[in-house]
Amino acid sequence: RDRSPSRGLGDVYKRQPKAVLASRGMSYLDITGVFFAYTFEANVNVDVPDYSIPATMGHELSHLRGYMREDEANFLGYLCCRESSHPDLRYSAAMLAFTHATNQLYRQDPEAAQEIFDGMEEGVRRDRAYNSAYWERFEGRLSEVSRTVNNTYLQANSQEDGVQSYGRMVDLLLADQRQKLSLIHISEPTRRTPIS
Questions:
Q1: Per-residue b/e over 99-124, b at no fewer than 16 CB within 10 Å?
Q2: pTM for this entry
Q3: Rounded to 5 degrees, what are φ and ψ at 33?
Q4: Which entry of 83, 102, 131, 189 is 20 to 30 Å from 122 by CA?
Q5: DSSP readout, 76-109?
Q6: Which residues contact 76 (CB under 8 A, 6 or more apart)?
Q7: Mean pLDDT over the full length of the chain
Q8: Do 70 and 159 touch, CB atoms closer than 8 A?
Q9: DSSP 16
């Protein structure tokens, strides 16, 4: 029996994502995954840091279910991994959410973001450093052109924020957190102070 993390994730969607043979080439294009509508396949770059692969799989498989907006696909990939019993999938979800949330925070309040970065556990710090070093190798004209093409494609498909729409999953993360907090609040018994 296959016990790999991707096996459990694919079961949720009834289709398995495909590893791309030319994954290194996808990295040069700044692409972690792609949904091919003509073949109805979720394709994943498997050359990237391991921890990011499950969330990418969930993202691309979300497109198979009809969620075409990038923020929604990111969020659904996050949810699917977060709810998994497999610790690698949960870690992938946490890192996806952490990355997008801290990127947003850094734009608004760099000092607060730095405080969070300073408090990270060593393993998380190491994974983030490896991820940054990995992607720095591929920065160049090719990745810039690819981002521009993707940005134009997304805008032409009613995602006005273009490539920035991937990070808009933070709005969905916040809404999810607010809903959880409201459910906790509703379920807490009301404490009354006795009248003296």
A1: ebbbebbeeeeeeebeeeeeeeeeeb
A2: 0.80
A3: -165, 160
A4: 83
A5: HHHHHHHT-S-HHHHHHHHHHHHHHHHHHHHHH-
A6: 58, 59, 62, 65, 67
A7: 84
A8: yes
A9: -
